[in-house]
Amino acid sequence: LGHLRLIVLCPNMSLDRGNVLLETSIGSVTLELYWEHAPKTCHNFFQLAKRGYYDGVKFHRIVKDFVVQGGDPTATGRGGQSVYGKPFEDEITKELKHTGAGILSMANAGPNTNGSQFFITLAPSPTLDGKHTIFGRVSSGMKVVQRMGLVPVDKDDRPVDPVTIHKASVY
After folding, report:
1. Residue 63 reports pLDDT greater than 70
2. Model-level pTM?
3. Residue 61 falls in the annotated catalytic set
4. Which among 118, 51, 131 is positioned nearest to 92, based on CA atoms?
5. What's the half-sphere exposure (Cβ side, CA atoms, 13 Å) at 165?
6. Residue of 128, 146, 147, 158 with catalytic role
7. Other C-beta atoms within 10 Å of 123: how many?
């Protein structure tokens, strides 16, 4: 049987700002968003989740002891679009670093090329600092993320058996 998750919304809580729950084929992951550090990036991710953009999307790249990456509806690593209709600028801050597992960041193809793709770190990854916008963290479900990091992958780091986001919800 599935798990029952109760989410209570405060009457004054804006539905345009909050956090995100990913219900995946392996389990649920709750993501706390860092609105004060990366407001444009959080808005993008939150709105894409709210609109159902991530529903049914696969984690297309998993590198053991490094990252799990998703957010590309084409599952090629080259697709996806922001809510702004075009790539948007980085919001990199010196206060936030990839210091451990569970850091939520934007994947990109170079500076200021953010779209819909994101990754969650599986270990400290200082080589990513200054290159990727950190916009949140795993607040619950880190064991699920760790299990994702252990799935068998092919030579291109693609999961042999799909790891899918069944539903992304905002709260």
Report:
1. yes
2. 0.91
3. yes
4. 131
5. 28
6. 128
7. 16
- Is 98 catalytic? The answer is no
Catalytic residue chosen out of the listed positions 43, 60, 61, 98: 61
Cα 66 from Cα 100, distance rounded (Å): 10
59 is catalytic: no
Report the pLDDT value the prediction gives residue 9, as an integer from 0 to 100: 46
Q: Which two tokens stand for residue 55?
A: 């529903």
| Catalytic annotation present for 119 | yes
Mean pLDDT of 95-110: 98
Q: Tell the residue number behind the tokens 């004060």, with chain if given.
A: 36
Q: Which of 69, 88, 96, 137 is catalytic?
A: 69
The span from the CA of 108 to the CA of 131, in Å, is 9
Pair 145, 122: CB distance under 8 Å: yes
- Strands, E, within the chain: which ranges? 20-24, 28-33, 61-63, 67-70, 103-106, 118-121, 134-140, 165-170
Strand order in the sheet with 118-121: 61-63, 67-70, 118-121, 103-106, 134-140, 28-33, 20-24, 165-170
Active site residue 46: no
* 108 counts as catalytic: yes
Indicate if 43 belongs to the active site: no
